[in-house]
Predict the structure.
Amino acid sequence: MAEYTLKTPLTEEDVRKLRVGDKVTLEGVIFGIRDANLIRMFDGQVPSPVDLTGAACIHTAPNVRKVGEGKYEPVCIGTTTSSRMDRFTPGLMFEYGVRAVIGKAGMMEASMEAMKKHGGCYLAIVGGAAAWETERIMSIDGVWWEDLMPEAIWKFQTKNFGPLIVAMDSHGNNIYFDVKAKAASKLPEIFKKIGAE
């Protein structure tokens, strides 16, 4: 396992060198995305109002404080479960050039195939780590589609955002699938010990 510090926007070369289990720390801009803005982009076919080429996007609907017209400061930036947004990952990578998705609990086959094809990765963050995440967000530098609050599109300026774990890489490896397979392989022995059929 290797450790990397990467500056956004990310390149395909940045992502292709990553392998499941590697640790990544990000510096620079990450974009906050979530169900409502993704549904608008893809189901509603409304183009993203911001360039996401090379972006690292985090699944979040943050708690923020308004401090002026269109200006916000972070209060608590937590991460939501990613799997329900799996269907949007191929479009994010193919149509918009997103390179990394940050979230918790993993994604499924559609995302894995998109990452292999377009050079993307999934960076896992520990659930319940909102206070830790918020400390690494220096400022909110932009917000689009405020009518979707809190599921607007957010532009976060970060410093030392990590370490994140590469849980899905661009080579078809998926740490969640690996853990599930290992757990399943132990079930017969466990059932035998407890006398289950």
Notes: Residues 3-194 form a domain with the fumarase fold (CATH 3.20.130.10). The chain has one domain: 3-194. Strands lie at 3-7, 23-33, 56-59, 63-68, 71-76, 100-103, 121-124, 137-144, 153-168.
